[in-house]
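Summary for the steering committee. One of the milestones for this cycle was to obtain a three-dimensional model of the protein with PTJ bound, which we needed before selecting residues for the alanine scan. The sequence and ligand used are listed below.
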Amino acid sequence: MVNIPKSHPRYESLMTRERIVEGVKSGLVSPEGLIAHGRGEAFDYLLGERTPPAAEEAARAAAAHLLLARNPVLSVNGNTAVLVPEELAALQAAVPAKVEVNLFHRTEQRVINLSAHLEKHGCRNVLGRGAEPTIPGLEHERARSTVEGIFSADVVLVPLEDGDRCQALRNMGKTVIVVDLNPLSRTARSASVSLTDNVRRAVPLITKHVLDLKPKGPEAWREVVKAFDHQRNLRDVLRYMADRMDAGAGL
Ligand code: PTJ
């Protein structure tokens, strides 16, 4: 990896970029993952590379949904696996939840390699190998899910999604939590809860709220879910970005 000094003002962002580049070199991340990451960076810039208040609120709602779930599953693609492997393991343990590799650019070898990578970083019993096309309405490789994992899940966390699977999972009656820096994406709009934040910050934030909410019990979790308004949350984050741009225009 290239040596980036900690004093660099964009240290975290540049290190994150390096992780993705290394991931492409090792085959864990698809080449298209570089483009997806660049799209994300542009929106992160509009957030000032910090978690907006709306994402904090969405993270709490996400945590409550995960705690209330009968079979919660964290769905992981290439970008997510290299950006937050230990953080996913911590979230898996805190809920507890299942972890399943689900890929758009799927090869069975990539699923095997990503599962091994996640398990090396602490995730347990990673699912996804040998998954069959079970999600109705999808004609691409993301339709593949395991029966004990995504197929039978009631709540699914899908970071960095590409849109139509989120809708397909909603059509199956599931609660879908997404992490997407673009609040205008189809994924963000069709989700039950969308965290507009970088997955590097979002996953530990959800874990923090899981640990905080856990001792409070199901009544408190249901209150958090009830109070959350997905459409209003997306409007809040768009206003936050617009206000930051307005402030910049005054320079
Ligand atoms: O590993 P695979 O084969 O499953 O492929 C995964 C990618 C990411 C290549 C695939 O899902 C894809 O092409 O995604 P899209 O359609 O480019 O969508 C990615 C979305 O994630 C975009 O809306 C980005 O703004 C957002 N995004 C990118 N990086 C981050 C992010 N959101 C949060 N944190 C990030 N670090």
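Key point for the committee: The mean pLDDT is 95.
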